[in-house]
Amino acid sequence: MRNGLSSGPSSSRHDADEALWAEIIRCEIDSWNPRRLPARFQPGTPQPSHRFRGTLPAAFAVWLILLLAALTGLSSNVGGVLQNLAGVRAASPPGTAGQLADPATGSGRQPSRYNRSRSSPRPSGLATAGGGPASAPMGTASAPRTSSPAPGAQPPLPTASPSDLTVPTPADFRRPPPSPLTDVPPSSLSRELTGAERSRG
Amino acid sequence: MAQLHGVGMSGKKPQTATDFELLYESFRLPVYRLIRGMVLDSGAAEELAQEAFQKAYATRHKIRGDLSASAWLHGIAVNVASSHLRRRRVARFFAGRPRPPGGLEAEEDRRQGSVERALAALSPGLRAVVLLSLYAHLSAEEVALILGTSPETVSSRLHAATEVMAAALARSHPAEAG
Lengths: 201, 178
What we know:
heterodimer; A: mainly alpha; disordered N terminus; B: mainly alpha; Rna Polymerase Sigma Factor, Chain: A; 9 helices
């Protein structure tokens, strides 16, 4: 190599090695001849399309879609966890972690039949958001989700043990409320009343 | 490599189309061979050589004053080949396969000569140093300008590259090496 940067016996050996390599490389590379490269230059001809230019955008698009799908799934999971955590925080006032108050009566409540019947293997030390079916209809979980109690609300009395309480899932909120006895249509009530009067008469 | 030194268009800046045609005639084969030595693929090297000349033609008015026409053209060729290698690496990464088991490239591997195998053992950066220094016979200063590094780095890389190539040849021809 013609750089003149090194000196000494080792550099002369390197120079000899490089000269030998240069000769070897020249001998082989000079035998490479193109098949289709034109002998005359044609300016302005479109540049050849490379085989990777077509596949790269498609592959990148597939990767982007997969990445977005993964991120969406992740964010929905995180959202669910945060939703549950927000429900737990709203249901447990400061200083009474895991205990639940009945917003209507101000007293604590026993674990509802609904929650007791759910024997799913989820953590039992968490509180139920929304007060359960005894105090509020299902699907009205927005009121107890405030982070601080209402100014006029009575302080909650702890009665239920944390181990009996469970965390509601979004599927729980979608369930229809249990139909009370007053759900009987008025027409059928009137029919029953008239029938009773007839039998009395 | 007489075409690159003092003969033809090696020192003249190609300002006109006629100048560039002369440059093309002088450097058509050296540029193709340099690119083929970089990408180790004859078919791709022909396309890339045309691309390199098109780029050189488009930027022929922007030749740096400290570079000869030969060094300028070889620099463009190395850049085009390096871009191709990067695209190929990304495409293989996305395709999920490092190298096709059969096909054109495997066939080329079988037909590779000793020098091609030795070059294949080098990284693209070392390959560029070897080809620019030992094949295009550019000085360390010119190679350093092309690659954006110092002449000392070029010298040390060249030394490292010759050792790697010697080891690769020893592996492929153990009897000759022993």
